[in-house]
Write a structure and sequence with these properties.
2 copies of one chain form a homodimer.
Chain A: H1 9-20, E1 23-28, E2 36-38, E3 45-47, E4 54-61, E5 68-74, E6 79-88, E7 91-100, E8 108-111, E9 114-116, H2 118-122, E10 143-151, E11 157-158, E12 161-168, E13 179-183, H3 184-190, H4 199-205, H5 221-230, H6 237-249, E14 253-257, E15 265-267, E16 271-274, E17 280-289, E18 296-304, E19 308-317, E20 320-329, E21 337-340, E22 343-345, H7 357-361, E23 368-375, E24 385-392, E25 405-408, H8 410-416, H9 425-435
Parallel strand pairs in A: 5-11, 6-12, 19-24
Antiparallel strand pairs in A: 1-17, 2-3, 4-5, 4-14, 6-7, 6-9, 7-8, 7-13, 10-12, 15-16, 16-17, 17-18, 19-20, 19-22, 20-21, 20-25, 23-24
Protein name (chains A, B): ChlC3
Pfam families (chains A, B): Hexose_dehydrat
InterPro entries (chains A, B): EvaA-like, EvaA-like_sf
Chain lengths: 438, 438
């Protein structure tokens, strides 16, 4: 879907921001990175300060003995992704930010109120420079509606988690340059625009509590079944047991190893890539920004080769919408297995079969309930685009459901997303997309 | 506390079992281990089959740069710890097992219905030999009341978790040799006996749902405040935010390394120990058992040097009991920090200060509400004894509460223990002990 043709105050503001924050991102050879370098022993790609992140190697030793190795991003810190909310005239609004990230296709995307690193919030009491962080950290923070540690891409990140927060305020809040209050219904509608709402905003929206969801809804049988699904299955016990069954069947060992030991991967002057051309590359970029604290910097990025796909198949059963959820292994996840979209490509390993892929790719366009091309974390990934879809199974079509998939209600997913290690990052994005269909 | 002098049918049965399952456990040099050996490259202690567990090295890189190294037990599998429950005459009973474990001081302790490894449950459909496992695994299992993945000792285990389950049945269940239905109130009372209820049973009892707890209670103001604490604070949101604050402040990197690289530790013919004599040793034993599937085997064990202490300080505030909980870092925990007893010794590092230790050690005996010497996992640890205590803060005494401690209600703890990564193993044991005081 492309941007709506209709102009709105938001769109006018957005054009201004995109123009004001124009920036340049250029590929460079690794040798031109400032402060970054390959460690003499082991070859990990690190920053001289010991801060930020490192690119290391990962060895995956599955039960069947087929070992795999790959580079992986390691950042043993918890960041805060926070959206500040406030009611105006009875409508929940979110304070959103137009934010430049070097890996974004269009550089500027719509971001949460704060995306703060550990060093940001540890200096919040000493006059930190991260706008609005005081609402999320420390004794003076606002009313916390959501506060949960959630995982990020397990194929690209080692044990990465961020703190997803929604905080409510009642008093006046100054609106700084590049920030804007966006009504929640409008924000959810913006999810339908390609590459606009960034991953950090989507994961927080995926944790929205029931009370905040807009009440006024769409008409029609699909929307009615969708809303019914929210009210169904608050007890997710059986689904949790199924997830534990899948986790328990595996014996997965994953270990960080020196980047030099990732056999099959080759380091050239400007990229690290696999012999077989699969997966992703590690590259380096120079960023020239008008708007960030630092006007120019260099950094490595992980660049996926292909566009990804994240799709939920849904069906109506007795007037309630059900979502076909996958219990999916990803090597960098702390808990190894989390709930994921019905279909997620690229697969973890190149030779992995992807059940239901045909059903998604061959879906009748009338059954595609949500469809947008959205970006993954632009601070770490270069042009990482994923097509997010919600597709209704055609009337009368029955799907065989294997051990690693299960029909669940949205009520069950919302119950589980209150805690970490249940819904993976793409499942949370899709949950936000489902909210936009109410 | 020592065993009650009063004889009961349970005690008579227990004496029989202890006698029938007599076994011998003897220290041996590593060279006499069968099937176990040190890998030529890196020196990890492994079994030739690739099964069971390994003893590897761990490197801890805290934010302050003071690196530490130690051996650690690694077993990348999820076991099932399950208690089968059934009502007899309106009273919940638990099917318990008298089970020998080589590391137990007294070898036989009271264990859950099943303690199953992955290879046990993966062969359950092919005529597995683990009694009662069919109630916990597969399509035919009973009504699942509790099913949650919980951590174990983060100082000794690398990322170890087990599946804690409580399953209810209504139909007849044959009672096999070494098993016995024990009424839940009696089982909770048995927690007061030294070295009787094993760690695996305690962690499952720590996950007991509210509905199963015995209703008839003790009299007196303390018991009333205790029961009130169960009904208070179902919303544990603020406590979760505090736990996330503590987690977020740290930047901890922990990595598995070859056992040979644990500088400061020395491998002798029959033990691996630290230069400074602190902490624990790795030893090897030969076991001769009358009752286990295999009559004789050898294995490594981790042997702590000193008795541990795990104590909750509690206080009455407005007629409700509150528990002083610690957010504690342990290097082998997946999430690094979990809720722990007010005081837990030994500390993670030898030079760590232990707040409230003096308050526990100097407590007036009239304020000691629970006190028993209980064993940690006898399948992996040798004579690992911990003194578990619940101590009421003396009337009028106020305690200063630091950033890493917080007063919580039992209702909040029970809300959090429904999910993994919140309460550590000793906190769950102590929660079971609190249940015994109702």
């Amino acid at each position: 879907m492309t941007e709506a043709a209709v102009d709105t105050p938001f769109r006018a503001w957005w054009r201004e921001q995109a123009s004001a924050q124009r920036s340049e991102v250029a590929r460079i050879p690794f040798a031109e990175l400032d402060g970054w370098g390959f460690e003499p022993h082991g070859g990990n790609l690190v920053h001289a300060s010991g801060k930020f992140f490192t690119v290391e190697g990962l060895r995956i030793e599955p039960d069947d003995g087929r070992e795999a190795r790959q580079p992986i991003i390691h950042q043993p810190e918890i960041g805060v992704l926070g959206i500040l909310v406030k009611e105006f005239d009875g409508v929940v609004h979110c304070l959103m930010q137009a934010k430049m990230e070097p890996g974004n296709l269009n550089t500027v995307q719509l971001s949460p109120t704060v995306q703060a690193t550990r060093s940001n919030y540890l200096r919040v009491h000493r006059g930190g420079r991260t706008r609005y962080l005081e609402h999320f950290w420390g004794a003076g923070r606002g009313r916390v509606l959501v506060d949960v540690l959630q995982s990020e891409q397990g194929a690209w990140f080692w044990h990465k988690r961020n703190r997803n927060m929604i905080v409510q305020v009642d008093g006046d809040v100054p609106v700084h340059e590049a920030f804007r209050w966006v009504a929640l219904p409008e924000l959810l509608a913006l999810l339908h625009s390609d590459n606009l709402v960034n991953m950090d905003a989507r994961t927080v929206l995926g944790c929205l509590p029931r009370d905040l969801l807009p009440r006024q809804g769409r008409t029609g049988a699909f929307a009615a079944a969708l809303r019914c699904s929210y009210e169904t299955g608050a007890d997710a016990g059986a689904a949790r047991s199924w997830l534990l069954d899948v986790k328990s069947r595996g014996r997965w060992t994953t270990r960080l190893i020196p980047l030099n030991d990732t056999h099959g991967w080759i380091r050239k002057s400007d990229e690290i890539s696999a012999d077989d051309g699969s997966g992703f590359r590690i590259i380096a970029v120079r960023v020239r920004s008008r708007s960030r604290e630092v006007p120019e910097w260099t950094q490595p990025l992980l660049a996926p080769r292909d566009e990804g796909l994240a799709a939920f198949l849904v069906r109506r059963a007795g007037g309630t919408l059900q979502v076909l959820v996958q219990a999916r292994y990803e090597p960098g996840l702390l808990e190894h297995v989390e709930l994921a979209p019905t279909v997620r490509t690229p697969p973890v390993t190149a030779d992995e079969e992807v059940p239901y892929l045909k059903d998604v790719l061959s879906a009748d366009h009338r059954n595609i309930r949500f469809d947008a091309l959205l970006s993954e974390e632009g601070g770490r990934f270069h042009h990482a685009l994923t097509r997010y879809q919600v597709i209704e199974v055609a009337d009368g079509q029955t799907l065989e459901v294997g051990d690693n998939h299960r029909w669940m209600t949205i009520g069950q997913l919302m119950e589980l997303v209150r805690h970490g290690h249940y819904l993976n990052i793409e499942a949370r994005s899709l949950l936000a997309c489902l909210h936009s269909l109410r």
